[in-house]
Design brief:
mainly alpha; 2 domains; flat; two-stranded parallel ribbon
Amino acid sequence: MFKKKKTDVTPAEEKALAGQESPGEEITAGDESAAPLLSHLLALRKVLFISALSVVIAFFLVYYLAIDYLMAWITGPIVERGIEIIYTAMSEALVTKFKVGLIAAVIVASPVIIGQIWGFIKPALYPKEKKAFRILFFIALFLFLLGVTFCYMAVYLLAVDFFLVAGDQLATPMLSIDKYVSFLFGFIVPFGIAFQLPVALYLTTRMGWTNYKSLASKRKYVVLGIFVLAAILTPPDVVSQVALGVPMILLYEAGVQVCRITKPRARE
């Protein structure tokens, strides 16, 4: 008797009924917004999987084909000086071989890893940014290799002679293979990282975070900071700290001169 007719439904009720009858529209919109994130995660998973697989394959190739040559090359500076290399734990020699093999495998697989990373970030870059990124990447890679090579050829061998002469009258040197390899990589890798300083200065200037006048005026504080950083990155001895600190100061000066001709990016 008092039933409301269909025609008596108010506009507000019609909206509510429409929302209840077609909830699929909201879900579809949510799915569409989640789709790009899901595709990015899947692409990232593919990058990580292929990179890890390339390292595993390279590790087996390096370990079974070249590990003895690598170990002979690494221990060469010590063996040539008549120093005996020992191991003090049953697994030490094997674990050290695995460590060297893994580092070599990452280097061997680096073209695949770099290619995967580039393929992942390339769609997000504009054409000009792609060109600039390529140039900057190869400069950074060159500086890293230059730093490692410079360290091994010009600094590391001198440091080895210095340490051996310093301890000559104190004790008979018998070096643990694991500690020696850790010392070697702990010595040369910071040089490769430190040689990225001009690239870092260029990027900060390009982003507008710093400028030539600011960098030039804070020289004395930077020199102090460089030697503090060198003390953190290198083994605890004066020779390696000075050997890293002096090139970093020269690289800082080179970076400052690059910043002189670098214009900050225009803000949108």
